[in-house]
Each structure stands twice: as C-alpha cells, then as structure tokens.
Amino acid sequence: MSVDLGTAQESAVRRLIARFSWPMLLLLCVMATAYGFAIEHPVVVFNLTYLTLAIVLFYLERTMPFERTWLENDGQTFANIAHTLTSKGLVQGLVTFSGVIGITAYITPMQGEGYGIWPREWPLFIQVIMTLVIAEFGLYWAHRIAHEWPVLWKFHAIHHSVTRLWIVNTGRFHFIDSVFSILLGISLPLALGAPLEAITWLSAITAYIGMLTHCNVDMRFGVLSWVFNTPGLHRWHHSKKISEGNKNYGENLVIWDQVFRTWINPDRRPPANIGIMEKMPAGFIAQLAWPFKQIRSQIKRKDNS
Ligand SMILES: [Zn+2]
Ligand SMILES: [Zn+2]
Fold it and tell me: By the 8 A CB rule, do 138 and 188 touch?
C-alpha cells in the first residue's frame, strides 16, 4: 500500500487552515488594530489591515473554496463595489453632517469628561465588549426589521439578491439599508456615553467580521458559532427558504439571536443555491431605484383595490 505523502501533508495543512483561519485572522486583525491605537495611527493601520485581510481571503477563496460554484462570475462585481462605495460615502457624509450639527461632539475621547452612565474607568477591552454587545442589540433589530417589514425588505433585498457569497459582496447594501442599520446600531452606545475609542473599535471589528462572514472559504467554526456571527451561520441567512433566511440576524455576535430564538445552525450543508424570490435588475442604478419602484407599485395596487 502506498501513501501519497504530498497529498496527505497538503490535506493536513488544509484541515489546520480550515480549523484555525477564522479565529486566527480575526485575532491578528484585532492585534494589528491595537498596535494602530498604540502608535496613534488607528485609521492608517486599520486600512492596511483590512486590505491585507481581503488579499488573504481572496487567495484562500481560490485555493480552498467552501462552494466551488460560487467562484464563477455572476456579473455583479461592479454593482457590489458601487453599492459598497455609495454606502460608505453616504455614511462618511452623514458623519461630517452630524459633526456640523453637533452630534459627534457627544462622542468624546476616553480622557475626556464624557457623559451618561458609561463606566469610562473600566479597562478598555471590557468597554469594547460592552459596546459590541449593546450595539448588537440595535444591529440585530435593524436587520430583523429589514427582513420582517416588507417596505425595508425591498432595500435589504439588494444584499440578498446575490447568487454567490464571496468577500466582494460584504458591503453590497442599498445605502438606505446601511444608514438605517448604522443609526440603530450606534444610537444605544452613543446615548449611554461610550467613548470614541470604543466606537472606533466597534467599526473596525464590524468591518473585519463582515468580510470574514461573507468569505467563500472552507472553514470550521465549532463553538465559535454559538457566540460569533461566522460564515457558517451567515450562509444559512442567505438561504432562499424563509425558515432559514429569516434567522441568524447577528452582525458580529449572535447573542441576541440566542435570546430571541432566531439562531440556527443545522447539522447539514447550507444551500449553494442562494438568493431571493423576487427578480432583481442586474445594473447598479436600476438596483438603487428598484425598492422605490416596488413600493410605489405596491401603493398603486392598494389604491386600485
Ligand atoms: Zn439579511
Ligand atoms: Zn450577507
């Protein structure tokens, strides 16, 4: 009996990568971000880390994909990037605008006075965990309402209309959907007086976990899926079946899914055939207009009946 050592070694390496890549990549990103804060260049280091994560995941998607059919071009790459940039641009604009009207003045650095009941004297990492858990409550409900309320679903359907999962559709959200979810996510920690550092950590971790969540890499998660929103859970969330798709709403953590009983992780392979029942136009501009047209024709139908 002969054993092909090359293949055996390769599959052992693959198994190791599958088991440890998700927590290791997240941990490395968190460590890099902490270093960015330590050298007082958090934004530059965040951007470099995010780019590196994208390159590593892009490579892994090609060498060890979870779903081989998802590697095929779906003609949506331009639309994915255009939605990402529009949403990011608009959110950036909103941040500037809230600075002009004075809202951002409430986000003060750790050293500052602060307001509200936030325990600023506690260690930063505990404050970051608190921010993640509290923001997650708003993010959970923003996401759940976007699935359960037909008007908002029209906007959120843009994200779900893709037929493959990969890192480039991480930021594919209609800008209305993005703004709604960010407003709900950030308002609670903000109202309680979370410091600037904690809010910055929240946005960095959300960006890293978001890209990991959508990656098409063969990974194992085990008990991590009980706490974190892993790609394994999110693949169920992109299912066409309502009973599977209207579950796993968590953005970073799934604790509110656990509390409100929307957490699922069946012991079988999630569907490769993902998407939505509605027909979504292929072009970016048509996709931006689609929810408005849908809502208008629904109102018309109601008026006529
Ligand atoms: Zn969703
Ligand atoms: Zn998604």
Answer: yes
- At 277, phi and psi to the nearest 5? -80, -35
How far away, in angstroms, is 301 Cα from ligand 2 center?
Answer: 31
Give the pTM: 0.93
Which domain, by its residues, includes 149? 5-299
Tell me the percentage of the chain whose pLDDT exceeds 90: 83
Q: Which ligand is nearest to the CA of 248?
A: 1
What pLDDT, in 10s, does the model give residues 190-217? 999 999 999 999 999 999 999 999 999 9
Question: ∠ CA 3-4-9 to the nearest 5 degrees?
Answer: 110
Q: What is the total count of domains within the chain?
A: 1
Nearest of 250, 230, 261, 277 to residue 19 by alpha carbon: 230
C-alpha to C-alpha distance for 38 and 47, rounded to whole angstroms: 16
Q: How many whole angstroms from 164 Cα to the centroid of ligand 1?
A: 14
Place of tokens 């079988």: 268
CA 167–ligand 2 middle distance (angstroms)? 10
Looking at the domain assignment, is residue 304 inside a domain?
A: no
Rounded to the nearest angstrom, the distance between the alpha carbon of 181 and the centre of ligand 2 is 13
CA–centroid distance, residue 296 to ligand 2 (Å) = 26
The two tokens of residue 54 are 């994208």
Tokens at residue 36, please?
């960015």
Position 305 in a domain: no
